[in-house]
Automatic annotation (TrEMBL):
Function text: Catalyzes the demethylation of isoprenylcysteine methylesters.
Name by which UniProt lists this protein: protein-S-isoprenylcysteine alpha-carbonyl methylesterase
Compositionally biased residues, Low complexity: 25-37
Matches recorded under SUPFAM superfamilies: alpha/beta-Hydrolases (SSF53474)
Subcellular locations according to the entry: Endoplasmic reticulum membrane; Golgi apparatus membrane
Tagged with keyword Hydrolase: yes
Keyword S-adenosyl-L-methionine: no
Membrane topology: Multi-pass membrane protein
Catalysis performed (reactions): [protein]-C-terminal S-[(2E,6E)-farnesyl]-L-cysteine methyl ester + H2O = [protein]-C-terminal S-[(2E,6E)-farnesyl]-L-cysteine + methanol + H(+)
The protein's Enzyme Commission number: 3.1.1.n2
Alphabetized UniProt keyword annotations: Endoplasmic reticulum, Golgi apparatus, Hydrolase, Membrane, Transmembrane, Transmembrane helix
Region annotation (Disordered) ranges: 1-57
């Protein structure tokens, strides 16, 4: 069905610290600093007020330290991108456009960054594997009256600068609708190639499927979402898992049947068609082929091509409902990519739908529209599919007010004009 609607962490030098939720017993235990014997006769002099102040000060210092570490990390991501793409006239022009674009959206970015680092609803860098990038962020709704549906989200970033923090705005908006969001980080190039990225994302999905109930999530209502390069990686992980389940000896700790639906936002699914397109836009052929493990691997990591192979045909019926979103003015990845993937899926018996948004660019659906506030058509569509199985129709998401605007309209329009994407 085709519906027309009008209208990046680089290589780290160490592992991030895991921050699991404290148990009630631990939270209720007095600190050693408050209960240390201070009197000559062995008595205890309690100073609850000063102890709480020290605890708050320590917590604030930790948050500032983490914010500084994240800033350093993002700086390294930018330097790595410039290093591998080369610094010529084209990239100087693109970099200046990116600076202008970022400056115009800065009022919204500041609010999202503050939410990311200081909101009690966000649990950052939960460990899901052994690699330094095997971390995910959790966005927890304020209401905890019942188990919540869950979204496992894979961010974009041209396979080079993908980062779990890019999902903060989406995580915030979906959490407001009563949905837990797990933003999965993964190795980027040159720390890893496409095979490593797909492996990391698959491991992250496995963690969500097997552990989300500890955070108030419903393990029977898990949805997979990917954006741009993340949509490609997530689709590869999903299809690879279905193919493994059709074979023998699969020892994976998650199953395709646990994923209720897959949402792909502005993704590319046939790399054979995109090599020259990316080269013209500055992601040079030699670099792209290095990311994708050589020209011979392009077919292997092209979901649209793979579902036509005899080895994968029996796996297609195992796939969940696939819903793709794309803007008709997307120049980074043409909307024809989503259209061709949906057509191929439908031809081989999969349930697939495409939503095209007239005049929307590569970043409009994921960034500018959520920053605009009000009713976001794409997010509303995702939330309606996720909540369609809710038995309680009086749930919190049914009365969510329109989101608050984070950036003035004239700045959003200017950002759209100078956007390098």
């Amino acid at each position: 069905m085709k519906v027309e609607l009008a209208g990046r962490t680089s290589q780290t030098t160490g592992k991030a610290e895991e921050t699991p939720p404290p148990s009630p017993a631990t939270a209720a235990t007095p600190s050693a600093a408050e209960d240390a014997p201070l009197l000559p006769d062995g008595g205890v002099r309690r100073r609850p007020g000063s102890g709480r102040f020290a605890q708050r000060s320590g917590s604030f210092r930790r948050e500032v330290g983490r914010a500084a570490a994240e800033t350093f990390l993002l700086t390294r991501l930018t330097l790595i991108l410039l290093r591998y793409l080369g610094i010529g006239y084209r990239w100087i022009r693109q970099f200046l456009a990116l600076c202008c674009y970022t400056f115009l959206l800065m009022p919204g970015f500041i609010q999202v960054v503050y939410y990311y680092f200081f909101s009690s609803q966000v649990r950052r860098s939960v460990v899901y594997g052994d690699e330094p990038r095997n971390r995910l962020d959790l966005y927890i709704p304020t209401s905890t009256t019942r188990l919540k549906p869950v979204v496992a989200f894979v961010t974009g970033g041209a396979w080079i600068i993908g980062y779990k923090g890019w999902g903060a705005l989406l995580g915030r908006r979906l959490a407001e609708r009563g949905i837990i969001v797990a933003c999965i980080d993964y190795r980027n190039f040159p720390q890893g190639t496409i095979g490593d990225m797909v492996e990391d994302v698959s491991q992250g999905i496995s963690f969500v499927c097997n552990n989300i109930s500890s955070y108030g999530g419903d393990p029977n209502r898990i949805y997979l979402v990917g954006q741009s390069a993340g949509a490609h990686i997530a689709a590869c992980a999903l299809l690879n898992q279905a193919i493994r389940e059709c074979g023998e000896g699969d020892t994976s700790s998650w199953s395709v049947s646990q994923i209720k639906a897959y949402f792909g936002i502005s993704g590319g699914y046939n790399l054979l068609n995109l090599v020259d397109h990316f080269h013209r836009r500055g992601l040079y052929r030699s670099i792209f082929l290095s990311i994708m493990e050589g020209e011979k691997s392009l077919q292997k990591f092209s979901p649209q091509v793979m579902i036509k192979e005899s080895s994968a045909r029996s796996a297609v019926p195992l796939l969940p409902h696939i819903i793709l979103f794309h803007g008709t003015s997307d120049h980074s990845i043409p909307p024809a990519e989503s259209q061709a993937f949906v057509d191929a899926l439908q031809q081989h018996g999969a349930k697939a739908d495409l939503f095209l948004y007239e005049g929307k660019t590569h970043t409009d659906l994921f960034l500018q529209d959520p920053l605009r506030g009000g009713r976001d058509k794409m997010l509303e569509e995702i939330a309606s599919v996720i909540h369609s199985e809710d038995l309680d129709k009086s749930a919190d998401h049914m009365v969510v007010p329109a989101a608050r605007r984070l950036v003035p309209e004239f700045m959003l329009k200017l950002a759209g004009r100078v956007s390098p994407f």
